[in-house]
Amino acid sequence: MTTSMNIVEYLNEYQNKWEPINMQIINGEKTLHQTGSYMPTTKDFENETMKTLKNRQQSATSFDHIAIDTKQINHIDVDTYEYEFFVEDIKERLPYFLSARKKLPHAFVTFRDHIESLRTKSNLTDDIEVLSGMWSFCRLDAVVYNADKAIDPISNSFLKPKKDKFIENMANKHDAVSFDKLKFVVDNLEWKQFDDYECWFSIINAIVHTGAKNDYERKAELLCHEFSEQSTKYKARQLDKMISALNINASYTFGTLCYYLKECNPDKFKLLYPKPTSNFLNPKP
User: Fold this and answer.
1) Residue 281 burial by Cβ neighbours in a 10 Å radius (0-12, 13-18, 19+)
2) Is 112 helix (H, G, I), strand (E, B) or coil?
3) What is the pTM of this model?
4) What is the distance of C-alpha 46 from the center of its chain?
């Protein structure tokens, strides 16, 4: 049984900045209006003092919505009805509230490494993004579910990466990848380094993507199970459901797996891609 809490109580408990906003939502379109003596802006949490924000909070019951600062505690903003397996995972392990318009989860989260941008697309789809400085908003009477769960940092691999030349080169180098080569890479990944949802998901996605691209989908699916069985969190039916619902994401490729292998097991990576030997002693005529 999960613990629920009013959004304002929850934010105050975590000393998360917020302020009332006068906002109307008509036919799905948001319109911001003068809110008492001030016109809210997305810079308020950066520019206004805590005293000013506290004073504004006194008038919260006069309005239906609040704006929430996402700089210290970030939000995963789900804006799609697809990826049900991911949404269900959020609802199981993270504190969240439902958005004002679509009633989709906004999950409270932090990341292991600081995020520079105000908002970042996820590696799943552009319709799931992370707010890390950009406003979030909800109804004043919103409920936070899983309010008792800790906001533990997750891996930055959840975020859509900037162009990585190594991964691009690996992906471009291998238009065709044999199953034996794929299995060699996966078998030599150090499981303990990837035993969190975000890293694990990127590996599963890359395995499935590689299998689909090289016409051995079923072998790739079985390899996903073989890799995942090493974790105490492994659930075969849940993994099957996730794979069947997976929209193959080209952000994860065989190059992604090679990158992970190079980082966690460089000796095995060298076996896969040995450096060319020098021809200095045997120059071509």
Assistant:
1) exposed
2) coil
3) 0.72
4) 25
